[in-house]
Amino acid sequence: MKLVVDSTVDLPKELVAKHNIEVVPLTIQLGDKTYRDYFDIDPDKYCQELENTKLFPTTAQPSPQDFIAVYEKLLQKKEDIISLHISSKLSGTYQSAMMAKEKLASGDICVVDSKQTSIGLGVIALAVAGDIENGVNKEDILNHIESIISRVNVLVAVDSLDYLQRGGRIGKASVFLGSMLNIKPILSLKDGEIHPLEKVRGRKLTGRRLVTHVQAAAAKCKKLKVAVVYVGNRDIVDSFLEQVAKISNVYVEYVGKAGGVIVSHVGPGAVGVAYYLDK
Amino acid sequence: MAILYCGGKRLKRAIIAGAESVNAHKNYLNSLNVFPVPDGDTGINMSLTLMATIKEVEKLPSLALKSVAEASAWGSLIGARGNSGVIMAQIFAGFAESIGDSSRLYSKCLARSFKIASDKAYKAVIDPVEGTLLTVVRETAESAIEIAKEEDDIIELLGAMVNRAKISLENTPKLLPALKEAGVIDAGGLGFVYFLEGMLKLIRGESIEEEDILSKAVLASEYKCSWRGCYCTECMIKGDDIPQEKIREKLNLMGDSLLIVGTDKLLRIHIHTDNPNAVFDYVSTFGAVSAKKIDDMRRQHRNIIDGSDKTVSLVVVALGDGIANIFKSLNVEEIVQGGQTMNPPVGDVLRAIENAPGSSVILLPNNGTITSVAHQAANLSSKNVRVVDSKTIPEGVSAVLSFREEDSLEKNIISMQEAINRTKSGEVTFASRDTQYKGMDIVEGDMLGIYNKTIQFVSKSPEETIIGLLERMVSDTDEVITIFYGKEIDAEEIDELANQMEKRFSHKEVEIHFGGQPYSLYIVSVE
Fold this sequence. Notes:
By secondary structure, chain A is an alpha/beta fold. Helix content of chain A is 39%, strand content 26%. Chain A has two domains: 2-26 and 61-150, Rossmann fold; 153-277, 2-Layer Sandwich (Hypothetical Protein Tm841, Chain: A,domain 3).
């Protein structure tokens, strides 16, 4: 069995290689340049480019053909496929994967809407990869996915709401717009959509509030898995990790970089945190 | 010649005389600052409250004791400004309640009414402080009870009360260190003495007239005690010559717990009935009905438990264009003009609450002196109003920032209170007069940096003072400093301040905004 994900998974390269995960890239259009997420440009370079341009990026889902190519390759190797993707409310990627599956009309392909993206998608993908390595059967893996989707909390601290607004993904967080104060919003990704969570004064308090949320969740369970994604703003991540390390029942799974597609929608400087109780 | 009782006509004249006596002394009352911070608005607040009171009393056609007392309660409630105003309103309200249906107040009843009024005033203040107006009222009322046991003459009773009030007043500096340090007596307490003196003068100078005008109001059908209705129903009626007594008689048959306050132009009605719409239909024949409210009392309890009310509006009290704009940008629905030394009348706050779109309202007074006005307005409103007790603008801003539309009212109130608790507020203002404070010599016009109700730093320059103040406020764990500058500060000063802040607080996040507030040159928030 093989796991296929899209590039919004934002998993570190080493983990993708280690767990033998297939990644299908979305594409980024910046001015007249087109990049395949991760394949053509790495997160730090893209972030720099974005900060130094007045152009505004757009992103595009993979075509069904992109999925067909990957699926066919795997099917020839007699692999069953679990294809796990960004929330269908945020991107047409899931749609493309479904169309690819229908076109192929043969082979065992299971396309799943993770109702998450980035760090939220990443922790689910990692759990699935582990299940595959442990020889867990497909039905149990799908149950496991549903279970994590229901447990996972994803918080996103953004520098500004501009990118979410211009990219059309702001959702209910639009209530945070228009403030005259320098507010760093913390949003949550729930049921596939962006929700407003908290208005925080300034960057430095953001890290502290993120820790508070993790702390509160940790107090309610035996073991809490945490993962972090960011690009730029390493200082917040460092102080967050330092604080979180002091909580005895928190286990940090990985720290990743947000890829070009995610950064195009949340803007440079955003930090994402996923956490869920480990069963 | 002795006067053995007080009827509606005499009460009306006495209240007017008392109010005019306070009004005549308002500037002197203002001058009695209890602190170097100029909070000298007691005289104006009391006077405005009492002027609103007599306005209601004067336009009353009825001279029934009960109507006069109720009109004074209503007028003072609507016009109440500042703490002293709210306390006076409570005194009138308690007085009115104690009268019930009696048409004459004899000496013992009068004393008892004062006592009930005093008790009510204590209850209205969340944190009663001795050595203030409250103490003077209470001690006067207590002695009135004793005196009335032996004394039937109202002139003598009032005279003794004035004397007792003065003794109590002279004692206030012993009870309240702030007064002693400033070398003054309590301004609110003195206002009450002027009020009593005004009443006494009127009663002494009056030739005795029998007042046998027993209006129908006094004969209003008795209050029913059984709980028949299960809908708590409220509304206001606006019109000309609203026949209050006729409505009272009719509504008394339609339910119980009937409360009618107001005048022939504006009436507020509260009744527990099984048929709210029949009540609205009936009263609509006398004028325009507004502020309708029907609460299913059986459901009310459940709603409080599961917090199912979703439409919550934010209403704040604030002063300054800049600060108002900041609140607006944070989705605050209504802003009442008011703050330190400019307490809004209860009517203004009430209007803002009623204008806000939500069926529930969270009200932020943003100043310690407005807390009781806020609670008064909350009680008067037909909406479900909760006061989150922000004592400063920074506390209000933090509370508003923590508000979440999708959360229940109860959850929001808790998180707003938490936000208030983690916000430090300070201000820079100028000393209104020469004084001494904790060994510091303060000269009129000095800049005072205040935090935690204490003067932390004094200098001649506002910028020097704010830096000095912040150095005492900011600790290592604080991250964000927000400065709201007042309307007296010009652009150059702000540039200079921004430079200074950059040097001194480079490791913190600093925001400087135009607040436009009067009186405070700078308001600062540290979190």
